[in-house]
Specification:
By secondary structure, the chain is mainly alpha-helical. The chain is built from 48 helices and seven strands. The protein has a five-stranded parallel sheet with strand order 2-3-4-1-5, sandwiched between helices. Strands 6-7 form a two-stranded antiparallel ribbon. The longest helix is centred in the N-terminal third of the chain and has 18 residues, at about 20-35. It is elongated.
């Protein structure tokens, strides 16, 4: 494992005039000690930064920080950027972590990393068991956060991270540091960084913002004063050095500590005494410290020494003397002789890591020497370095770094190396590094027969960071002749994904349809047809949904009749899954929806198949939720999200999963849990560049959840913050954004605006024949919006929604429609509708909607003097609202009770998802087909008591009566004492 080189410890003279910086360091270390001991410390923010141009003593400060942290008993982990290593992804991170991991054997490392081993092994430079594992950058960052946190909290001593020369750090390490550093304030951890602010790469925006916006601003280092320079000079040439001589030394060096120290040492070696007549000699020595003077001094050391130094500069510090000798084409003895000369000339020095590696005394020296190498020779040395590193077993990534500096020459072996290195970069979670390597491989150029595959690989590297470039690469790949059918299918699928990712769903659907028409492979045709259906159904502007639906229905029927279900491949099952979702949207009987969903799931569906996508399995899982089987939906989502996390896919896939899992919890009435999950989904989506659809899902579900909890102002703040209610994407989002926004407008009393918006939604959905109020209850919301201004119209909308809900058949959808119809009907005629709404919702798992219906029914009964029945309904509704976390609904129930002269009772039952013994017995007997009267007799209850027991069962188990038997098979039994 490589260790970063570090400038050898220097004397305290280099820390002249650094009192302010050292005081800041001591204060930070003191705060860290207090945090570690559990003492209150308001100042600890976990980050300390030193900045300044080259040579001002940043590394000397870092060396002093190491010494003081070690003396305090803290554990020090260090890393530094290297000018030659900026193309190596996570190079600085590896320097931090690898020394700690090197002290463990393989079993200890795997135990330490746990489930993260498979995700971040390649990132940390470890051997990965599964070389096809490609995590996303978010998953890698999460894994690195976990590792660094564990390294911090599992050690008895606080940890200090020293990160030097971060202006040369790889962008992957800088990105991770920017996201992780804020955590240091909550850990026994101090991060000390040093860098040249004017040389930070433009990609380091997040890191720069972190440091500039932190509690303690960076400490910029100032040049030495004339007095400081004079002190250093007199330490080397004697105390009698004249003031004028010392002043000229300050002028020549500009107060740069590195140049001042180097000049003073050389003057001492030459025997100068600091008189004015020695000024010409002093100036000549100063010129030799850097720039052309340094190069001239190097050349005087001999040809072999020059070539050896050039090779070291090409390799980058720290470097192996043997490798440098190989690249310089000199023998070991000549290399040893050159090393001694360079040590004496203060150009090279030994590093403090194992292995006898060498480093340059200062990065300024390395930069000057590298830039002085003639271009032709430099190219040749990079080429030799690539070959030598590969031969020495350093792997394709180390070799490929040098190939990037070599002109294109059409070498197949170079292309192979670059492609292998790109695969390593992708496994390490660095698509940007993979893109650089594959772009260079394409320029080599590769063999004609490999071009399509290479373009496909390049497109894969750009998908998460520049999907528009992905489209261009894949379209170019499709123009190549003689593409393997499987590769072509993968190219087309990835192209449709990239087009959809850039909100070009019409093009995505067209590409898939055209490929389905052209291919002669039956399985590829099915796959392309499935992709065509996916992207067509997800278009908000699909021109003829009905025609597409008929085509899908006919195809699914043929596939369902073909052979045994166990013999169906994934292509067939995807078609059946899409048929299930289409039937749901159209409001076909839920039995049809569930039958096709079950057929689709026979054999399983992966969320992380890179050539299939997760749109179909997610749709199939949600079909169960809309069909009153939310427990089954939760099981599928839990499995899918776990699959994403195991593979290190913690970006947009996981964000959508978390948001829609929250939606399932919301529809079950678990509003607090729903809010937690959807906020997690929104946080995940906001960490991922380009995860716009995931944010739309999350924001809409969060607004609905907040409204259900009665927090209208919070919902409005969320909507305004995310510009929700403005332009919507061209992709179908659920819950429908315009309907959700209309619900917010209704809650705010802006009825006319809500009416206008919901009318637009209705026209759009009816134009697509999407008539299921369970999926989008626009008619119910519209009925509420016009109930005062056009009561007859409101009733008509609610009645039509009820008719559609009955066609679909889910009890929750029927109950919600009846509840709205009762509300807009009013009067005594509404009492029976309220009762029917409660009756249907009691047979569903929709706890929040049941609570709403109970409170509505109770309020209506109270208005007509039926106080006994009203009290029962209102008490039940209040209890349900409290359990759901619906604060506003609970307040309404209390207000209705008070208005009726009734006093709210304490909650009778604690909130739990575990079935009581009575509930389990009632559920089992019902699942076996026993009528309510038989169950009531067995349990010595009235039938109404049985209905209430079963209502609790459906809520807890997450199913309706038809799915009860199957759900009970896996639902935990109550514990017996």
């Amino acid at each position: 494992m490589a260790h970063g080189s570090r400038q050898p410890s220097t004397s305290s003279r280099q820390l002249l005039e650094r009192t302010q910086e050292l005081d800041a360091l001591d204060a930070a270390l003191s705060d860290l000690r207090a945090v570690a001991h559990g003492s209150p410390c308001t100042r600890h923010n976990g980050l300390l930064a030193f900045t300044g141009p080259a040579g001002l003593g940043k590394t000397a400060l870092m060396t002093e920080a190491r010494a003081r942290a070690t003396a305090a008993g803290f554990r020090v982990l260090s890393g530094r950027g290297g000018e030659a290593d900026q193309e190596l992804a996570f190079h600085v991170v590896r320097q931090l972590v690898q020394p700690a991991l090197a002290t463990m054997d393989e079993a200890e490392r795997e135990a330490f990393l746990g489930s993260w081993h498979a995700i971040i092994a390649a990132t940390l430079g470890l051997e990965a068991a599964n070389t096809s594992h490609v995590p996303d950058p978010t998953g890698v960052r999460d894994g690195l956060d976990w590792v660094m946190t564990r390294l911090t909290v599992t050690k008895k001593a606080p940890v200090v991270l020293l990160l030097d020369d971060l202006h040369w750090a790889d962008i992957e390490s800088l990105g991770w540091l920017a996201s992780f550093a804020p955590r240091a304030a909550d850990l026994p951890l101090l991060i000390v960084v040093a860098y040249r602010p004017d040389e930070l790469p433009h990609e380091a925006t997040a890191f720069r913002a972190l440091v500039d916006g932190h509690g303690s601003r960076p400490h910029p280092l100032a040049p030495l004063t004339a007095a400081g320079v004079a002190r250093i000079v007199r330490e080397q040439v004697g105390t009698r050095a004249e003031d004028e001589f010392c002043a000229e030394c300050h002028t020549v060096t500009g107060g740069n500590p590195f140049e001042t120290v180097e000049l003073a040492i050389r003057m001492g070696q030459r025997g100068l005494r600091g008189s004015q007549d020695e000024l010409p000699t002093m100036r000549a020595l100063a010129l030799a410290v850097k720039g052309p003077g340094l190069i001239e001094r190097l050349r005087r050391l001999g040809t072999n020494t020059v070539r050896f130094t050039y090779a070291g500069a090409v390799l980058g510090a720290p470097f192996s003397p043997d490798l440098a000798a190989t690249i310089a084409a000199i023998g070991r003895e000549a290399a040893a002789e050159a090393t001694e000369k360079l040590r004496a000339a203060r150009i090279l020095a030994d590093t403090d890591g194992p292995g006898g590696d060498l480093g340059f005394v200062h990065p300024l020296i390395a930069t000057t020497i590298y830039q002085s190498i003639p271009s032709g020779l430099r190219v040749g040395m990079h080429n030799a370095a690539a070959e030598a590193l590969r031969a020495a077993g350093f792997g394709p990534t180390a070799s490929a770094r040098h190939l990037l500096e070599v002109p294109c020459d059409g070498k197949p072996e170079a292309v192979d190396c670059l492609r292998e290195a790109a695969r390593e970069s992708l496994r390490a979670g660095s698509p940007e590094a993979a893109r650089r390597l594959l772009t260079r491989a394409l320029q080599e150029p590769c063999l004609p027969e490999e071009r399509a595959a290479l373009l496909h690989e390049l497109a894969g590297s750009t998908f998460l960071i520049e999907p528009t470039a992905t489209v261009e690469h894949l379209r170019a790949a499709l123009t190549e002749p003689g593409i393997d059918p499987e590769l072509r299918a993968s190219i087309v699928y990835r192209l449709t994904q990239a087009l959809a990712h850039t909100d070009r769903l019409a093009e995505a659907a067209q590409v898939a349809a055209e490929e389905a028409r052209l291919t002669s492979n039956a399985r590829v045709r099915l796959r392309m047809q499935a992709d065509h259906f996916v992207w067509s159904m997800n278009r908000t502007d699909e021109p003829d949904s009905s025609a597409r639906s008929r085509t899908l229905t006919r195809l699914a029927a043929r596939l369902a009749d073909r052979g045994r279900p166990a013999d169906r491949g994934l292509e067939e099952r995807c078609i059946l899954g899409l048929r299930s979702w289409d039937a749901l949207l159209r409001g076909e009987p839920r039995r049809t929806v569930l039958e096709h969903a079950e057929d689709a799931l026979r054999g399983g569906m992966s969320w992380t198949d890179e050539n299939r996508g997760f749109e179909v399995p997610v749709s199939v899982a949600l079909a169960y939720m809309y069909c009153d089987r939310p427990r089954r939906a939760e099981e599928l989502f839990t499995k899918g999200m776990a699959e994403c996390e195991t593979k290190g896919w913690r970006g947009s896939h996981l964000a959508v999963g978390q948001a829609l899992f929250a939606y399932i919890r919301h529809r079950r009435g678990c509003l607090a849990e729903a809010e937690h999950w959807v906020r997690e989904g929104l946080r995940t989506a906001q960490r991922v560049e380009g995860a716009v659809p995931a944010q739309w899902f999350a924001v809409g579900i969060l607004i609905q959840t907040l409204l259900a909890r009665g927090r209208t102002r919070d919902a409005r703040r969320i909507a305004d913050r995310h510009d929700y209610g403005g332009d919507i994407p061209n992709a179908v989002i659920y819950p429908d954004p315009r309907t959700v926004y209309a619900e917010l407008l209704l809650a705010e009393g802006r009825l006319a605006e809500a009416e206008c918006l919901l009318t637009e939604v209705g026209n759009w959905l009816d134009g697509r024949d999407w008539r299921n109020p369970a999926w989008c209850p626009w008619q119910l919301r519209l009925a509420s919006a016009v109930a005062r201004s056009a009561p007859d119209r409101a009733v008509r909308h609610a009645q039509e929604a009820l008719e559609r809900a009955r066609d679909f058949g889910a009890a929750s959808a029927i109950g919600q429609a009846m509840h709205t119809l009762a509300e807009v009907t009013g009067g005594r005629a509404a009492l029976d509708l309220h009762a029917a709404a409660v009756e249907h919702l009691e047979r569903s798992p929709a706890a929040y909607e049941l609570a709403r219906a109970l409170v509505g029914h109770g309020a209506s009964l109270a208005r007509y003097g039926q106080l006994h029945d009203a009290a029962d309904r209102l008490y039940q509704g209040l209890e349900g609202a409290v359990h759901c976390g619906a604060d506003a609904l609970a307040a309404r129930a209390r207000a209705e009770l008070s208005a009726a002269g009734l006093r709210p009772l304490p909650l009778r039952y604690p909130q739990t998802d575990t079935l009581t013994a009575h509930e389990r017995k009632a559920a089992e007997m019902t699942a076996q087909g026993h009528p309510a009267a038989v169950v009531a007799k067995d349990l010595r209850l009235k039938e109404q008591g049985v209905r209430q027991l079963l209502s609790s069962v459906y809520r807890k188990v997450g199913t309706d009566p038809a799915g009860l038997a199957e759900a009970l098979e896996t639902f935990p039994r109550p514990r017996t004492s």
